[in-house]
Each structure stands twice: as C-alpha cells, then as structure tokens.
Amino acid sequence: MNHLVIDIGGTAIKSALYMPSGQLADVRETASDGREGAKALLSRLHDLIESYAAQGFGRIGVSTAGQVDCVAGRIIFANDNIPGYTGTPLAELLTRDWQVPVDVENDVNAAALGEAYFGSARGTPDFLCLTYGTGIGGAIVINGQIYRGLSGLAGEF
After folding, report:
1. Which of 14, 34, 49, 95 could covalently link to 7 via disulfide, CB atoms 3.0 to 4.6 Å apart?
2. Torsion of CA 118, 25, 11, 54, to 10 degrees
3. Within 10 Å of residue 35's Cβ, how many Cβ atoms?
4. Average pLDDT of 113-139?
5. CATH number of the domain that residue 56 is part of
6. Residues 124 and 101 occupy one common structural domain
7. Structure confidence by residue, pLDDT tens digits, 17-45
C-alpha cells in the first residue's frame, strides 16, 4: 500500500506518494502560506490530502516545522512563521479525517533520517544535521538513531 508523505514548512507543503517499490510518485509543492495561521494551513493540508485520496494510501507520514511530540503527534511549539500552530494535535486530526495511521515528526529529524537511510550520511552512525530555511533547525543522530534527550527536543533551538 502507498504511504502519503508530507513536509509542512512555513512557506511550502511538499508531498508525494511513497510506493511499495521505494519510489516516489506524484511529487508536488504547494504554498503553505503559513503566515495566514494554523487554521488556513490545516485547510490547505486537508485539500491536498483529499487530492491524493483517489490514488489510495494506507498511512500518512508528516514532517513539520516546530517542536513535535512524535509519540502524540502534537505540535509542542511553533514560532510565528505559522501563528496558532502550537498545540495542534496533527496526528489526531488527520487520523480522524482519513482513518489511517499517521506519524508526525519534526522536519529536521525527518531530514536527518532521510540522510541516514538514503543520503550523504548513509553508513555514518553519528552526525549532526542542520537546516536553514524559513526557520533554523538541528537534529542529532547517534548510533543511527535520532537523539531526543531528556526533553525529547535535543537538537532544537
């Protein structure tokens, strides 16, 4: 079954279907207009997911700007790039609307895992991943795993 993969940023939402073959299909980039606030962003996200529904997907994976409780799938804190995003129960909302499992992860942690499995950090057990875009973020990988620290937010600043 396909997985719908989504990256939510302050300026763009990137999405694709991850196929069982390991390939990406129907890759898209849509303006998020994050500065309009969480409600507008969630409406855009809903419309985007709806547009993939006919192709079918059995799971949704979301990487997103902000500090994320990846167990609960909730946005712990987001800066003013997406006003009102703090506290959004993203996994709960998407699971309710689409009736599929939803995983939510911080965008830089997801990027670090992508580099570890498919990119320039492949075969490197320990590394630091830094990103600079609409915001600035960091992730720490130790022994091939995201290091979350006591608070669950190691690498965030």
Report:
1. 14
2. -140
3. 14
4. 93
5. 3.30.420.40
6. no
7. 999 999 999 999 999 989 999 999 999 99
